[in-house]
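Q: Could you fold this chain for me?
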Amino acid sequence: MTGTTSHLRDAETARLVDHLVAELAGAGVSHVFGVGGANIEDLYDAVHRSGAVRGIVAKHEFSAVTMADGYARTTGRLGVVAATSGGGAMNLVPGLAEAHASRVPVLALVGQPPTGQEGHGAFQDSSGKAGSFDAREVFAPISRFCARVDDADSLMELLPQAVAAARANPRGPAVLLLPKDVQQARIRVPGRGAAPTLRVPAPTASAARLDEATLTTVSETLRAAGRVLVIAGEDVAAADARTELAELAGRLGAWVAVTPDAKDVFDNRDPRFAGVAGVMGHDNVEDCLRRADVCLLVGTRLPLLARGSLDRALAATDVLCIGPEPPFVAGTALGGDLREALLAVTARLPAFPRPFPRHAGPRPTPAPSPPPHALGRTLPHRQAVGAVEAALPQDAHVFVDAGNAGASAVHLLPAPRRGRFVVAVGMGGMGYTFGAGIGAALATGRRTYVLAGDGAFFMHGMEVHTAVEYAAPVTFVIFNNNAHAMCALREEFFQGGVRTDDSFARTDLAAGVAAAFPSLDATGAGDVAQLRAALLRGNAGSGPAFVAVDCDPREIPPFLPFRARTDSSGVTTHPNDTTKKETSDERGVVHVG
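A: Sure. Below is the predicted structure, expressed as structure tokens.
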């Protein structure tokens, strides 16, 4: 690479894209993820020349966004994605929607045709002129900030605004639309020694002071409570408030549960750990909630996936919430900066830990009996997840995809003590993990596990090629049941019978991937010993590894709506057995993949 960052300090003018990349580098951005194209090539040229930011070329723009998303979730820094106009820009939409729903700070730099061609039949015109659609109207609903950079000078104002909007609560994506001629324009830049113009706000910067009256109410209610259940969410990780959460729980003598997307915010092996709340969670959480005087939500609004089966118990319990956004359930909410609020509440509690009441702990739900017609040699999800647990480094990151495999991993796999455990429940899009895991691995250099089903693999699994190209330390574990199995089970249980729409012909994924990527360690594991050996071999390497495990599509995952179809002994009931129908509350949360 040819370095020009030092040259920019001395120049009176520079290309807008060179200045933009220098500003991002000065703000701590180390990677830009994306896919190239004519109307974004100047930005990629600037990245190449800078030497300070690494450009990562994905196979698809959706995965490029999830790479930036995984980068942001594991580093706490701003993730950046760059894509060209037209179809490239539109491919960003589902990934940005996930970042919007899950409150992940991502900056999207989107190329546009030259301004002089707008409304004159330009290829991939999205200016809104002469009958073309307006890209701003597409991106505005899924972003915290969306603006078109109409001229070079306006970047000086719009870039800081975009970054600030992405990092402020509620966090999320910001989008800058960059016409090609504006990217190429020359602008005046600060001279040597000048302070950077882009000021990135700290992710925990307070938007407002804590409300004193609410702080008093929350603190006094907690002081008077005998039994407290804390349910902690993803905002604890985003605010890096794990230490503050643990201290508060200790002072309260509280049980601590987590939402499905926040397994890593509290030590899963701590005796106070109650389990995962929601449709993929543990019965013990509901038991603790029914015994609690107060339920304290920390860093979660408690959406449906996190409160499945808990609504009645929540309605009968005093609910408090600490976090930047109000909860989806009734209660007293203390807004503002999460860490500041945790510290303020803890300071008003007795300065010594309280013992916590006994509880059953996060015991897994009983495993259903294997179907009598199990296909060939398959490995139950519980055994496969157990092998992953045995091999998983405690500083690894884990990214769990949607579907039966994801439900099993959320329910059964303890989070690593020093790594992230990420589930993209904002949009629940299949295939999210392949890009996100690569982004996390490249950003942190740490071994990252991607746990996904074959359906997710067929959507975006060719990002394995990106992992190979950049030697990313990612271990892809594919649970292959040759089906969209969660959909197939829904068809059987809730729509009156089995259809073949979501069943596939058998595919040997390991053999296919090994043939496509000869340098990749790709293994088909037929039993627990083979799986564990392949995982340990991947841990010992410096680059990617791929392991495929055959599973039965009829295996019922630990997923609340399906549990109505098994009796207490784990035996599946007949689809027409009306004595085991799901409740109306459960019907409201079953559409998750």
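A (continued): The chain has a mean pLDDT of 90.
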